[in-house]
Amino acid sequence: MNEGSGTQEGMGGLEEQLRERTALLTHAQQIAGVGSWVWYPHDNRNEWSPYARRIFGFSDDAAESGDPNLFFNAIHPDDRDEIVRHAWESFATGSRSSAEYRVVHPDGSTRWVRAQAEVECAADGDPLRVVGVVMDVTDRRRTELDLREKARFLERAHEVARLGSFSVDIARRQVHIARETARLLGIGSEPVERGIAEFRSQFVVDEPEQWAAQMEIAYRGGGPFSFEHRLRCVSGETIWARLHGSVELDEFGLPVRAVAIIQDVTEQRLLEEQFRQVQKLEAVGQLASGVAHDFNNLLLVIGGNAQLALATDDGAARTELTEILRAAGRAGELVRQLLAFSRADVCEPGALDLNCVVESVRRMLDRLLVENIEIRTELTDDDATVFADGGQLEQVLLNLAVNARDAMPDGGRLSIVTDADAESVTVRVSDTGVGMDEHTRERVFDPFFTTKPKGEGTGLGLSTVYGIVTKAGGRITVASAPGLGTTFTITLPHVAAEEEREIAPAPAAVDDGNGQRILLVEDDAMVRNVAAGMLGRAGYEIATAENGEDALRLFDEGNEYDLIVSDLIMPRMTGLQLTAALRARGHELPTVYTSGYAEAELAPDTELGESRFVAKPFSGEEVTAAVRDLLQRAA
Fold first, then answer.
1. How far, in Å, CA of 418 to CA of 426, rounded?
2. Angle between helices 196-203 and 208-221 (to 10 degrees)
3. pTM of the entire structure?
4. pLDDT tens-digit readout, 595-605
């Protein structure tokens, strides 16, 4: 009895130890996130640890049933066939197996698991059981997926930014070219390695030794480095690359590795070059404006004196005086081109039909171009109204037509085509001439640039075109290649067509002056004398003032005048300021304004009263016509 009791007590102790160890194993599996299971093939029964049940989403009742189909039914349908096949292959060969797959919980949620299993066999090789462990790897898989997505995003961002990277193993003299850099250079879509010398000879353009010197400076200095250099792609295309990198040093301060990002900045360099070209055009334009203003005054003196001399000449010098006037007129055209280019020319913009401008120019081209050039116009049926100066648009088309004529010495075809949509109106001027190379095309709008022989071109034609189009709020582009002709495309903003307005009849012509008193205000003595001679010969009584202050003093002394002729740009007081000062004193007089560049001064919202504008250099007929018109209106 005592012996039996001792045996029972011993068995009870072993069972208690087994329970403790089982509980300890279960707790350890829970801490490690690992579950275990056993399959007994002879009676086709499964056992599941508590944490394995939790991983697969089994209830205790389902797990304790031992149903082997419980496992296969839990596998995600998309993974089931592959896992079942893999499990049976491992069981048949007795090999250890490992797999990751998805399981579906009863609530429909999906988890990723990683399972490993091993077959235990008897001495005769008969399989006794299959023991496996399983881990929930859902969080790891999600992290990996997130990392892959971020890597794809970063790779795409690098591709869009044309940004790559490379590293240099200085000891091995090897360059590791990352995937995006390989794509950038046209090597392929996978990372590659090249020797430093091979990399320089194959990809570095323009003084590879300079690249080597820059990298050598970076190696010696350690730390960050940055520079730009041209690289040659496998296709032969060259790109500008900007490098930002850093050199790693070992414990002795010697360089061991350089890592750098490389960005394609070719488009940025092109934009910077275009910006510099625009700045150059604007600077030359400002210079041209200042020179043209002074030159206009000289031309007025030359032409005006020649005109006055012709009026009194007995015929001996008439031919010479006429030639002087003709030369002054041609010089005036050149000045107008300079002013149009510099955006300082006086113009009268308004709503106009671009098709009408083309038709007007078409009639002139019949006389301008030689017979072996075919002229073709194709005008849009849509509304083609733009806001610009008609005369200047005619000048644009004529300049482009002359260029086309010179590009077709053996004849060809000149085409002018218009098109319009809701936003813009386009005119394309094309020729079948010799075309332009890249160097000429890049400089075609530069002032004073010409491909014509010396003495046959001023180099201002296309600069003038550029200035007029830009001033009208448009843009102009050129497409050309040697032997393929040239097309200039002008795009202007589309505006609504103005309603037709009743035009008042022009006032009837009147005779020249009958002693009306005119105050001429002009700071240039030679211009003042010529203008006074023109007006005096027309029958007006002329008083002169050197500037606005002198003019005010004449009024303050009690002098009275019927009209003022005033320069707009004068020292100390402009023409508009003089008008405002006289108005403040109660003198409201009609005024003829003159200037060589007055667009900024004659802003649309300026209160001018009764006034006219005459651009310098003017003729006697032009200035007296303006005076007559204002005096008639004031009568």
1. 6
2. 140
3. 0.43
4. 876 444 454 44
